[in-house]
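Cast an eye over this sequence plus tokens and explain the fold to me:
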Amino acid sequence: MTRLEVIVARLETAELDLEETTVLLAEGMELHKKCLTKLEAAKSKIDKVIKTK
């Protein structure tokens, strides 16, 4: 998560050239996808716990 925050901060500075922006954007999108996967897994576990009570 920290790396994703760093990437966002760097992209927001608008001081990057096109190549750097593209590389950071691609890395950020991959990290975003991984975060979503972990979030969905956690949500699924929580839903199972709630249903068993």
Notes: The mean pLDDT is 92. The chain is about 90% helix and 0% strand. The radius of gyration is 16 Å.
